[in-house]
Specification:
The protein is of the alpha+beta class. Helix content is 53%, strand content 18%.
Length: 232
């Protein structure tokens, strides 16, 4: 009589091996899945960072209060050589510029700053025993025209502040240009409307990248604008 012989030990062994292989595959799949998930997550994070718009410091918020812009002066001289010597001294601390005033002489200024930045810069100069004087330009944001003037001056000064860093060769001002074009229309009869228009046209005419060589010219322009809009 023939019969089929079943090897129970072999069958059980094969079953255990099958289960072990299956578990191994599942563990390996889970491990690989975890690695892939981490890679995707990191990649997504880096993409998010790439596409998040950077803080745009060239687009200041509307300021309806009183704002003080401060020019730091190294001195005022009748002799050009003395003015040039003072300017050379101040070069270590920023991008100084000259203002020639009829009947008064030549002013040597280190720069124009917000009140907060001016306090720090004045202290630095005093600590280094460098002569310094403060010229304040107070502007009230009582009208839309004044608010926009404050905004443009503030954005421009932020660009110039970055140019004082010796490691910075130029600053891109595309955002500042966009800011000026997106400002609200101001009544042409507003006080200092002509100065606002002059500033917008000036920014429009600047290159997209401002270099250190352009800093002095920019400071002179802002200084003259501030004198006009704060004159009493």
């Amino acid at each position: 009589m023939k019969y089929t012989r079943y090897d129970l030990k072999r069958k059980n062994s094969d079953g255990i091996m099958f289960v072990a292989v299956l578990v191994g595959i599942l563990v390996l799949a889970f491990f690989i899945g975890s690695i892939v998930s981490q890679i995707v997550y990191k990649n997504n994070k880096s993409v998010s960072k790439d596409y998040i718009a950077p803080e745009n410091k060239q687009q200041p918020a509307v300021n309806t209060g009183t704002v003080n812009f401060i020019a730091i002066q190294g001195g005022i001289y009748n002799v050009k050589e003395t003015a040039d010597a003072t300017k050379n001294t101040l070069t270590e601390y920023g991008n100084p510029f000259l203002i020639v005033e009829q009947g008064k002489g030549t002013r040597v200024l280190l720069g124009i700053f917000t009140e907060e930045e001016a306090v720090k810069k004045l202290k630095e100069l005093t600590d280094k025993n460098v002569a310094n004087y403060k010229l304040s330009f107070q502007l009230d944001g009582k009208t839309l025209c004044h608010q926009e003037i404050i905004g443009i001056v503030d954005g421009n000064l932020q660009v110039l502040s970055r140019l004082t860093d010796k490691s910075v060769k130029s600053v891109n001002i595309v955002k500042l240009k966009e800011y000026c074009t997106q400002l609200k229309e101001v009544d042409k009869n507003s006080e200092h409307y002509s100065e606002l228009s002059e500033m917008k046209n000036y920014i429009k005419g600047l290159p997209s990248d401002i270099t250190k060589e352009k800093a002095s010219e920019n400071y002179v322009f802002i200084y003259n604008i501030l004198k006009k809009v704060t004159a009493k």
